[in-house]
Amino acid sequence: MVHTDHLPASIIRFSMVYGPGDWRDMLKLVRLYKKGLYPKVGNRPKLTPLIHVRDAVAGLILAYEKARIGQVYFLTNESPEKFDDIRQYIARGLGMKRPVLYVPEWMALAGASLIETVCRFAGKVPPVTRNNIRSTLADRVFSMEKSVSDLGFATRIPADQGIIDTVKWYRQQGGYRKMGKEREVFGVTYDRYVLIQLHRELTRQLNLSRIVEMPSHGAKAAGSLYSIGFAMAGCNVTLVNPEVTMLAKWDDIGQTDRMTYREKIDPCRTPFETDAFDLAWNFVTWTELEKPDRYLQEMKRISRKYILLVTCNNFQPGYPWHRFLHYWYGFHWNHGQIKYNHITTVRKLFKQSGITVTESGAVDTPGWPDPSGPRDVRLHRRYGSRDPRLRSIPDWEVPIIEYVKSNTYPGWMKKLGKWDMLFRKGVFKLPLSHLFYVLGEKSDD
Do 397 and 270 reside in the same domain of the chain? Predict the structure, then answer.
């Protein structure tokens, strides 16, 4: 386009950009190392070009000031890093050492071929492919000669320092502090599936395109993934105060381009413009806020038209048992203000806030109650400290991500979901529903 249309522009290309705020490539490598899945494949150096985000920004500023029109500039470190050296820097940043498994190249390629074959028959996306292996084995070396001569560009942050600092930043965010492995149970996977169906239906029904989820942290499950249904339906999503360790999963399902996020925002006093979004919504966690009425007024202000709250349903038999377990084990109640877990109370709150309720009902109705069990007790013991300084976030394994990637869902889930969505409106499903929702429309005044 620059060449054919004679645009007065220059092209800037980067190698792999990493640093604080990167929840994609480097985080994946760190997670692999923590799991002991960062082997030494073959004996080639596997040269990998990198650039720290601060050096990348400095290069963009130089390009803005000095780049020649129509030229292409590549920004990267002066010399690429050996893939095995990156592993060592990650280990130093984590303060831990894992045994390194050596895998011959032929064995890695054969294993990837087998994985591809099995996943093809299973209808799933393979976690690793032969192309992945070949790409990792290849040396990638790029010339910065033009960037140095024209722009005067030079990197300031060496890879070892940059990677170690990035890993430490992950730990400061809670991503690797006292992190334990947790897998979401099938009931949580089902409620995520139903949410995806609800979001698709609302997007079609209300002609939505801009969504904000505020706040977007999790409740006994991985946070910041509840809005993927809106993104899959074609909406642009803004996440407020997300669990940043979960953002890499948006990349796993190919929806990163539809997601942005904002941190350290007061949900009752946001910097967003009035009518900035088509719909403002939350999943469960709004009841944790000190002033839900003030929060709802802010949701009304930043939404052009619609407000949606999905909330835990206390009108089901699992709730008294949940309360009893908190009492028996002495866990403090960290599931928000109880009175807002009733659909009539939320409907009244909408009315008091000048929001007309256009639809309400029950979803996530699998046919069994929503009781707390050993899993919930374990989560409270490990991660539910009353002291925020001692809290941490589990390393969540989220099965719905694999289903979304392959676009293949269990038959029971699809059949149950159809019934759940068909009879979602109204209150007759409340006695067995785990969640209820209230959708409202702001008035024109």
Answer: yes
CA separation (Å) from 16 to 22, 44, 250, 265?
Answer: 10, 20, 18, 30
Q: Is the pTM of this model over 0.70?
A: no
CB atoms within 10 A of CB 102: 10
Q: Count the residues in the chain.
A: 445
Q: Which residue, 170, 236, 176, is CA-closest to 25?
A: 170
343-352 helix and 292-302 helix, angle to the nearest 10 degrees: 60
Strands, E assignment, 173-325: 181-183, 210-213, 236-240, 259-262, 277-283, 303-312
122's CB contacts (< 8 A; 6+ apart) are none
**Does residue 283 sit in the same domain as residue 393?**
yes
Kindly give the residue spans of alpha helices, DSSP state H, lying in 336-373.
343-352
Q: What span, in angstroms and rounded, lies between the C-alpha atoms of 120 and 125?
A: 7
Reference 398, options 239, 212, 190; nearest CA is 190
Domain range holding 42? 11-172
d(CA 156, CA 217): 35
Percent helix, percent strand, percent coil in the chain, to nearest 5? 45, 20, 40
427 and 391, same domain (yes or no):
yes
**Does 5 reside within a domain?**
no
Is the separation of the CB atoms in 227 and 199 below 8 Å?
Answer: yes
The residues that bridge with 361 in the sheet, in sequence order, are 425, 437
Half-sphere exposure in the Cβ direction for 174 (13 Å, CA): 15
How many domains are contained in the chain? Answer: 2
Pairing of strands 210-213, 81-82: unpaired
Q: What is the mean pLDDT of each run of 10 residues along the chain (445 residues)?
A: 67 91 82 79 87 94 91 90 90 82 88 87 74 82 89 92 90 58 86 96 97 89 93 97 88 92 94 97 94 96 97 87 81 83 95 96 85 70 53 76 92 94 92 94 77
Of 139, 172, 205, which one is at a domain's C-terminal end?
172
Whether residues 154 and 297 share a domain: the answer is no
Rounded CA separation 165/89 (Å): 10
Q: Is residue 352 part of a domain?
A: yes
